[in-house]
Structures are given as C-alpha cells and as structure tokens.
Amino acid sequence: MVDKDQNKGHTEEPENASRRDFLKKSGYAAGGVAGGLVLGGLFGQFDTAEEGANSDQVEQLQNARTFFKRREDFETLAYASERIYPEDENGPGAIKLGVPYFIDKQLAGYYGYNAKTYMKGPFQPQKSGEYGLQTKLNRGEVFLHGLRKMQEVSQKDFGSKFAELEGEQQDEILRKFEANEIKLKGVQSSIFFELLRQTTIEGVYSDPVYGGNKDMQGWKMIEYPGPRMGWANEIDAEEFLSKEPMSLKEYQGGNL
Amino acid sequence: MATKLDKVDVVVVGVGWAGGIISAEMAKAGKNVVALERGEHRERSDYIGQKDELKYDSRYEIMQPLSSDTVTSRSELDETALPIRTREQMQLGFDVGGASVHWAGATYRYWPYDFEMRSKTIERYGEDKIPEDMNLQDWGITYEEMEPYYDKWEKMAGISGEQDPLAPKRKNEWPNPPLKETPALKLFKDATSNLGLHPFQIAAGNMSQNYTNPDGQTLNACMYCSFCTRHGCDFSAKSDPLATVVPTALEHDNFELRTRAYVRRVLYDGGNKQATGVMYVDEETGEEFEQPADVVVLSAFAFTNNRLLMLSGIGEQYDPETRKGIIGRNFNGQYNSAFHGARGYFKNKRFNLYMGAGALGAAVNDYAADNFDHSDLDFIGGGAIELRQYGDAAIKSNYIVPSDTPRWGKKFKENSLFYAYRGLHIWYTSTVMSYWHNYLDLDPNYTDEFGDPLLRATYKFGDNERNIGKFGVEKCREIMEEMGADIVEEDALPEEFDHVYAGGHYTGGVVMGDDPETSAVNNYLQMWDVDNLFVVGGSAFPQFGSHHPTPTIGALAYRAAEGIEKYMNEGGQLAKAKTKSHKA
Prior knowledge:
The complex is a heterodimer of chains A (about 260) and B (about 575). Chain A is mainly α. Chain A has helices spanning about 15-25, 35-50, 55-60, 70-85, 100-110, 140-160, 165-180, 190-205, 215-220, 250.
C-alpha cells in the first residue's frame, strides 16, 4: 500500500524513511534494485501525480533540518519517533506527521537551548528525574548525546544503523534507554528517552504551525477539533460532537 | 549607586490578586501609590488568537522563566538542596496579575473550622489528636470576621455559583448564577446524591453571564473555550486582576504601575523598626532605584515575600534545630500530597471533554474541613471531592489511558485514541499541615542573576498527608464506581515528596496569627515587629485549608487594605498580641 502522502516532493527526509519502509515491505530493497537513481526514478513518477499541490509544496519548503546538522542523527531521530508513535490502521505515524521536523524546530529554539531554565551550577546530573532536569547539557545536547549513543548501540548489538533495523530491534534499543540501562555522559539515558517520548507525542498533537501534526492528521485521529472562540452552545450537549479540526492559522484569521 | 526617588504613601511589591486589590483600594482612598511588578503589563490582546496547548500548557509560556531564579528543594535537614530548574517542575505566576491570570477560577470559602483548626480540633477531639511534630495553629481570625471580606472579593470578581448545601448560609447570593451543567457533571451529581452526599456546582471565577462589578469593571459571559487554566483569558470572561482591580487602580492619577521593576530589598531602619521603602532594579536598563514610602506592602508570591524579608534581614529566620524564629516557619502548600482520587474509563460513552472552563465542575463537601467525624480516623482536616471539566486539548487527551497501557508504541497509540474523552478523574482537595521540619530559608549554594541567594524549601509529608490522601482515594473510588465507569482505577499516592511544585498552591512562611511567638503578621497582615510593613498573600496561611487558596488570598487582601488605611490614620499595631505559646 502506498498512500499519496508517502510520495510527494523531492525532499530527502522523512519521506525517504517512508520510501525505505515501502521498499522493505514491497520487496524492492530485498530484490537488490534499491539505489539512488532507481529510487529517484521510481518516486519521480508519483511526484508527477502530485503536481498542483501548491500549499503542500510550500509546507515542504518549511521542512528542512535546522538544529540537526548530521543527516544520520536526524534519521535516527525519525525512526525512533516512529516506534514511539507508529503508523497503523488508525492513521499515520510520527514520520508522516512531520514529528522529526517538529522536534528539530523545538531544539533550534529557546526550549532546546534551555533559555528559560535555571542553568547555574553546581550540577548534579545524576539527580535528574528525582529533581526534574538537572543536567548541565541543554535539551538539544541531550538529544545529540542520546541519538548518537543509539546509533552506537545499534551497530554494536545488531551490526547495522538504527534506521535500518527491524522495528522489534529498534524497540529493544529504545527499551534499554527507557530503563536507563545505557550509560550516557552528563545525562541518564532514561531522561533522554523521556524527552524523546514527550516531544514525539507533542509533535503528533500540537498545532501544525510547529512542524508536526501534518494536515491536522493527529487531531483527526483523536477527533480533537482544535481552537474555537468557544463552545457555549454545545457545552451541555448529550452526545459526543466530532468536528472537523481548525488550525491556529485559520483561527487567527489566516495570513496578514 | 541607586537613584533615590520621591517618597510615596504606599509602595506595593507584586501585582497579583493581593497587590492588585491593595493598589485599587489605596488608589480609591486617594493615597499616593506606586506598584512595582517584575514582569510586563500584558493585556487581553496578548491572549487573543493564542489558544495554543503546546505553548501554554506544555511549555508554560505564562509562567516565570526560571533562568534568573528559582527555588531550591530538599526533604531532609542534612541534605543539599537542588534548584528546581524547569517549568515542568516549578510553576510561578509572572507579569502583572501574577498567578491570578492563569488560575482556573475554583472558588470556595474556607470553613469556620479551617480558620480555627487548632482550637476546634482540641474542642472536639482533645489535644492528643494533634501529632507532636505538627505546628497546627489558628489564623487569628474567624470565619465570621472573614465573611465581609469574602463577600467583597466575590462581588469584585463576579463569582458564579450556587449555595453549597453544607456551607454556612450565605448572607448574600453569589453575584452570578452557576455555570452550565454538562453530562459529566450531572453524572457526578447523580452518583453522589445516590450515595447520600451533597453535590453542588463549583463556584467559578468564570462568568456565567455578562457582569459589571461594584468598581464599574465589565466582564463577559464565559464561552467555555477550554483555554483557561495556564492561559490568560482572551475574552475578559475569567475574573483576574487584568480585568478588574488593575484597571480600577489605573483610573486614578495617584496610582502608578511600574513594570519590569525587580525588587531586591526592603529598606529597613532596624533602630526604629520601620520599613523606609524598597530597592529595585529596572530590568530593561539594569539601573537601581530606591523607592521610599510611608507604608511598604509585600504582595508578591509566597516564595518572594519570604525571600525579600530574609534578604532584607527583617524578622527572625526560623531555625528547625532550635525551633526558634518566625520567618520561613510553617511552610506548607497544597500540592503533591493533594489532588489524588480515582479515574474512571467509560467504554460506551464519550464526553465532550475538549470543551470546558477552568472552574467548570461539581463537588461535594461532605468530607471537607471537620464536616465528618474524625474520632476514628488517623488524620485531621478534609477537602472537597471534585469533578472538573477544564477542557483538554489533544496532547493532554492522549495521555488519558488505563494504567496497564504501555507508555509508547502501537498499543499506546491504539488506547490513547480509543480512551480520549472517555476518562473522568475525580480528586480530593485535601488539607495540608505544617510541621516543625518544613520551612524556608536562604540557600547556601545557589544564587540569582544578581548573586543573591535563592530561597530554599525543605519539605516532606507528615503522616497526616499520607493518611488523608488514602482516605480521599477510597472515597473517590466509591463515587467513580457509582458513576458507572467500566474501569475504575485509584490514583497511586506518592510515598515521599517528589520535588514537583505543580500548580501554584505553595503557602506559609510569613504566617498570620494572634501570637507573635508563632506568627509573623497579625490579622491585618501587618508585621508584629514592623508597624508599617504589611505582608499579604498565601504566605500568611499557617496551614493549608480544605480548598483552593485564591478566594482566601483575595479576602485577606481586602482585610489588609482596610488595615493599611487604618494604620495610616491611627498608626501603631492594629491588633493586640495574645501569647499562649503552643509551639510544637
């Protein structure tokens, strides 16, 4: 199954991730024909079918790595977030929802640089958890430490990049981080995992303006209608009201 | 060198409900008032188009950035406290209006018992009922004395409510009728009625209709938009100082609001026991100023009121080793040990839980204060059992899953999508006591941007907190079962304090009373030692009553405003000290 969202535009990721999934599942990769040119050509066909999706292209122009410099780190992030919020019969997972870009944008801003966090020492990073975040590392650095260690563990345990592992193998690594079984410098691996989990969920369900929740598909899955002026006329309704979602952009009255 | 400014009648430090009320009352009385606020003066237009869960609920946009200063925390006297670094762990109000801008609006008066908890406990159960380690004390004021100030605050704030069947009969109706009833609230009310309890609609600072308060400020009917708690209201439909007392004060030329003014010291003449003004820094230029005044009012958040007294060397710092000293003593707060109860999941019913308002809810007070017999119970105090419909957005709704759900992955996604809008949570707003070992002082290791020590909180639960929590959870489970949930789960009670300062209910340290041996301020919030210094706000709570704190803080501010005027006319101490030392 290839749905249309999987194959639009020329951006390298996270669509690439979906492409690889698609290839894996459809047997192209196994058949040994996977290669840059072949891939490009194959997906080129789908791209043509997508012509005219202007707003979508604009949105895609807004998705590029700004915090993450190494593509490899971003790839690991994308696959890890997909395991936390996977695609299933209910709808898209983290990658198709743009969650990796959401996290990239969050880390590029004040949140990633801990600008509103008390950052004076002395630090006792090992007390993180018990006392909230106690790292000298800011959140962006925590992500880089964690993702690179995931890659390292992946190579060591399975002899391959995290992004190329089977889902179950990826889960196994994530569970080790979650259980704080992996040693990281300056932060517990469980603290990194919690940040990864929290930001993944936020990327699925926050307003699309932040880079995730693509086309409000996260909201559609959970039947959340987005912001409204109010619900004074519906507040005492007996039945559950499932409404088409409205984005913050529309709520604010569109563009200036 | 600080620039010395012209003297004013009253300088007010911090403009939340407490400082806003005092500013408005002093301005109306014709006093020359300067109010200093560390943050900015945000307006309704700052909140329009801001219905954004990530920014406000997940990132706490409206709360104080902790980059300059926070509070350090520990549980034991021999521990090194660590700074609480993130806003996930420490939520402090900021900007003009303070915590009142992001409050939910839940409005309860404290009970007669709450104000005289020590006397009334002894009267009914004997002195042995009070554990040795508990600093249980009366407030130095009774419910009867507080009643007119509550009434004044409720009218100013336009509270929407109905008579709680168990509460003292109101002398005046609530200024507005209650908010609308939703199916979830009705379910709670029916179930609690079936169990022989006495449900009512929670009184709310969210307007049930358009309202003009006695000061002429207009509030609009609430739209139930759900972006309420942790948000500022875009419609002036939630009562807060920005919609009420601040504009009232600003109508007067004799009132000046100075923002981005970070007060670092109360200037104190120890020989004459007089506060002479305050020293503050203009946060935009770094310049220092001295603002002299006849009366100094500290009406910042409880933490800041404590810290400013300590940094200024006013009053005797409490020392837990000797159990002597007053400032920082009886630090308490309704967080962590409170707000536990039961969760219910309804497989065949979905509620419109993405709609709501901060204080939209129903409650029973059968287990509040001393409304039930504690003879055979292993705790004192009580609380309301509440069902609230704040209105949850998508991130929050996603986490409402039965506890056997994995924390991530396929099954998590499946359950979070299924159970969204099917989960209801009821909780117990229980009393929190003060103990000799819980207190505030200055931290020896961590400092703010100016090099001044941070405030240190030393805090752990007493048995009362654990036992009352357990009682509340059981009662909540009974109600949730009666409500017919398919899955009923009790909240896990924390064994120990986990250093999460969630919500905003931290209080005490500059407590009120009628005995200078155990209290810092009298029942006009005037310092016992320093006649022209008033310390107003949650810092005055000797222990935490059965309910959310805001209305009591508001009422105390009206009481203090009356006291300040009285002091300016008559001078001296406004209350007579009684010494009947009952220190633990």
